[in-house]
Structures are given as structure tokens and as C-alpha cells.
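Marked as duplicate of an earlier ticket. Keeping the data here for the record.
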Amino acid sequence: MQDQYRTPAREGVHEIEISKSRFLCALAPVATEEEAQDFIARVRREHPTARHHCFAYVLGADGGIQKASDDGEPGGTAGVPMLQMLVRREVRYVVAVVTRYFGGIKLGAGGLIRAYGGVVGEALDVLGTVTRQRFRLVTVTVDHQRAGRLENDLRTTGRAVREVAYGAEVRIEVGLPEAEVDRFRAWLADTTAGTARLELGGEAYGEV
């Protein structure tokens, strides 16, 4: 598994105009291929009169799932440069749709490649990206008397507290870099005088 990846900070649209053609890049973070396809379909519905809706997406922290479409533009002039920009910028779990309103002036293959790849790069700059880090999930079980202070200590020391559940005891789910698990175990025993229980869970990604 990849230790970390970058993804768009938010969904948004960035527009440029080249030789009277408008290029609107809609960019969004997505978790699955179904979400990517739903986003592409939504953009198509929002711009029913546009001539082209070219898209590219990259899924998986290692970039394993990739797809691109020229949607009627000359082969290799739209979807591929869009995909190349996403890959070059090391962005994952992302979908980009570039809607083109043709302005009547042909740009040629080179012009199209620069336009489609360029608007995706500009959209990434404008919307920004966030880095997501792979964490080991651990669940700490502690009595109510110590729970409040322990949660506060976890947060003030920069640990990623993901969930707190109150029952007969308090369960606190924390995300930790794999290398810190043993150190955390020792810290927890010292902080709670050995009264807290630690259970290792699976892995997940969270924002750094």
C-alpha cells in the first residue's frame, strides 16, 4: 500500500479561453469509479449544448485505475493529456472533466493538447490539493474517569482521533503511522497507569 497520496482539496470549476473556445475544467475528489462516472454524467447534464465533455480519472493510492476519453476530439488530444497532467502532479482519487464550447477557430493537435492538459493543471493550482497519509487504526478502551483527560492528551499531542464512543467504557479510535504503534503503546501505558486496553485494527487514509 502507498504510504500517502494527494487529492483535490475540494470540488470546483476553473475556466480558460483560447482562440474563442471556452474550456471549463470540473475537478472533484472521488472514492470509486462509480462516483467518477456519476460526476461525469452530472457535468454533461449541466452543459447539454457543449460540443465535448472530455474526462480523465485516477483511482487508487498507487494510481492503479486510470481512464481517459477524448469525447469526439481527435484521438490523444484531450483525455490523454488530461490524464498525464493528473499523473504527473501525483494526484489520486480524482476525476477531471473538461467541457469545451467551440469558438469557431481550430487549434490543431498541439493546441488541443496544451489546452486540455493546461486547464487541468490550472484547476489543480486554483482548487489546491491535500495530502492523505496511511494510518494504522487502533482502538483504546478506557474507563470514564480517565477518558476526558486521555482524549485531550491525544489531541494536544497531535494524534488523529477519529471517533469516540461512550458505553460501559469509553472507546477512542486513533489513526497512527505504522512506525509509531509501539511508541504509542508505551505512551498509553504510562499515561493511564496501565489501565487502558489497546486493540489494533485495519488501515485507512486520513489527511495529514
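See parent ticket for discussion. The chain has a mean pLDDT of 93.
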